[in-house]
Amino acid sequence: MYLTFLGTCAGVPSIQRNVTSIALSFSPKGETWLFDCGEATQHQFMRTDLKPGRLEKIFITHLHGDHIFGLPGILTSRSMSSIATPLTIYGPKGLKTFIDTALTVSGSWVDFPLEIVEVEPGIVVENDEYRVIAQPLNHVIPCFGYRIEQRDRPGRLDPQRLKDDDIPAGAWLQQLKKGKNICLPDGREIIAEHYLGPSKKGKVVTILGDTAPCDNAVVLAKQADILVHEATLEAAMAEKANGRGHSTTAQAASIAHQAQVGKLIATHFSSRYRQQDMPRLLAECRAEFANTDLAYDFMVVNL
Q1: How high is the mean pLDDT in each 10-residue block of the chain (303 residues)?
Q2: Quick one: residue 104, left, alpha or beta (phi over 0 = left, psi -120 to 50 = alpha)?
Q3: Are strands 263-267 and 2-7 parallel, antiparallel or unpaired?
């Protein structure tokens, strides 16, 4: 798994930063999910190694423009590029109206299966590989944070054990790698766990939308490997930040500390801040939570 930050600015873009979007990829050739889709996200996407055809899900935290104005472009460009794979978009109530209106008024259309899911708190996606949980945050309009839990994965196959037990190569080894028992052509039943090393613990990533400090931020982030938390303003501007449903550097770090996360990545910085301001903002975060980095556009984080 790895994260690619496509936009890290709050409200409006700056010369150095685009507005919010984060891509989560499960492998270099695997599926990709987007979290938020601010204006010009597709331009940012094109400047990376990410492939539009591998985009399967988009999670929207809330319906402010700096988080959704890139959706119509992503959707129509996908159709014009003849990408026919299904796409599901998750987000708060009103998301379907926004997308339908944007497409209808502009005379646009989509040529691929598109599903729009207006989420409720709780589990929004669950399968054998991962689970996604959404909970409301503390913003001026309805806003969600998302917790992505990767399932534990089977360990590596033991080639010596396979050889010792005279298990031949074949398509069935792929099933064993997935932790599934198999039956060989000679009738032997092979128990996967006897040939696999220790399981690999799945990763947990929490990506929060815009929020002032709140209990659900801690709940969603609890012991996550990575927490992505907004830090719109500096520590001295807490009253202004919180009044607008946002957090400061120090408050983001405090949430990370309370949740006992592995690493904090702060993002969504006000456009007032320039590159020369970032060391000061980083120091404010690290004073509360040492293992902190500040996101920048096109930053890639491997888990």
Answers
A1: 98 97 90 98 97 97 99 97 97 99 97 98 96 99 98 88 89 86 91 89 98 99 99 98 99 99 99 97 99 99 96
A2: alpha
A3: unpaired
DSSP readout, 164-230?
A: HTT---STHHHHHHTT--EE-TTS-EE-GGGSB-SPBPPPEEEEE-S--S-HHHHHHHTT-SEEEEE
The pTM score is 0.92
Instruction: With beta carbons less than 8 A apart as the criterion, state whether 125 and 146 touch.
Output: no
Reduced DSSP (H G I as helix, E B as strand, rest coil) percent helix, strand, coil of the chain, to 5 = 30, 30, 45
What amino acid occupies position 158? D
d(CA 32, CA 23): 7
Kindly state the tokens that stand for 156: 């590596």
Q: Which residues are catalytic?
A: 66
Instruction: Please report the domains of the chain, with CATH numbers, ordered by start residue.
Output: 2-152+201-302 (3.60.15.10), 159-194 (no CATH)
